[in-house]
Amino acid sequence: MGSQCAVVWDDSLLDYDLGGHHPLHPIRLDLTMRLARSLGLLDGVDTLRPEIAPDADLERVHRSDYLAAVRTAPLAGPEVGHGLGTDDNPIFDRMHDAAALVAGGSLLAAEQVVSGRVDRAVNIAGGLHHAMAAHAAGFCVYNDCAVAIAWMLAQGVERIAYIDIDVHHGDGVQAAFYDDPRVLTVSLHQHPYTLWPGTGFASEVGGTGADGTAVNVPLPPGTDDAGWLRAFHAVVPSVLETFRPQVLVTQCGADAHREDPLADLSLTVDGQRSAYRSLRELAEQYADGKWLVLGGGGYSLFRVVPRAWTHLLATVLDRDLDPATTIPEQWVSHAVRVADNVPLPTSLTDGGDGTFQPWSGVTLSPVDTAIRDARHAVFPLHGLDPADTRD
């Protein structure tokens, strides 16, 4: 069994560029990797260069006519349909190659884990969880998360758990496996009444023959570190324990942060760091250490994403960083040239402490209500008592 971590990265992943002032700007990836390197996180780590995912692998999730539409879109224009050519999903040159390269990165990471070369692998350029079988959605052309999961299933992996901590519901991955009992999808996100895509209610629990394999925890706007972590720990470990995954896949969007411009949760980078550490522990406890880590959303490009995902890389590599670590001047001097007068952070902390009070079964707040609803919807389907609050 492997023990090291594979990091998938190449500057060519920056070609997934939706253009102009689109919120999903690749500068966030560049700044993350620069920050990680400036802190020495990647010293001695040979990053793996991805290749464009073959059509056969993409078609485990996406329809062939959709792939054809993506290929022809730069010439056909918005009339190509399939959700392409919108404000969210503008058409750009070599769109198929750029999107398929992101998917190829997640496939490469999955292959490293399934082969046993490593126990953990990370592709921060991945996590494009909204793309559907036949249309683009939410800045996502191909759903690399689902493509990687489908590939692992085809290799004989029998149970895969997918945990999505992006502020937006992981709708594309849930849809891809809603009727497949081999895949458990868990999503913690801002409540669908208050945020796109408007799905992810606690009542969405899986299709026929897969009851209980979709788990949704919709959280009220304003949920902070303590509330988010309480909800996470009140739901996620229990369903993982009963499902017994062989691989844990996590989508680690950074847009639940309080400064994210597209959503309304209130986490700090300290709360996000605590979430990553919890995911690491869960992979060790319930998936024999097998952990595939993907990026996702995150639109505070200069202040949040680079710090959050530097903590993510540190966590995956077992090179945890002190939150009080000062950001190197080398990074600041580069970032100030591209940050367009955005005030830059000076350390890896927001001053949060990442602590929380475990759920006691009492519903004293909207977060507690969300916990109660999620547990009542899905726990009985796993043979669990939703009222049992024992660790």
Automatic annotation (TrEMBL):
Q: Which domain of life is it from?
A: Bacteria
Q: Does the keyword Nucleotide-binding apply?
A: no
Q: Which UniProt keywords apply?
A: Acetoin catabolism
Which residue intervals define the domain Histone deacetylase in the entry? Answer: 22-315
Q: Which Pfam families match?
A: Hist_deacetyl
Q: In which pathway does it act?
A: Ketone degradation; acetoin degradation
Q: Which InterPro entries match?
A: AcuC, HDACs, His_deacetylse_dom, His_deacetylse_dom_sf, Ureohydrolase_dom_sf
Return the similarity comment.
Answer: Belongs to the histone deacetylase family.
Protein name per UniProt: Acetoin utilization protein AcuC
Task: Tell me which species this is from.
Answer: Saccharopolyspora rosea
Output the lineage of the source organism.
Answer: Bacteria, Bacillati, Actinomycetota, Actinomycetes, Pseudonocardiales
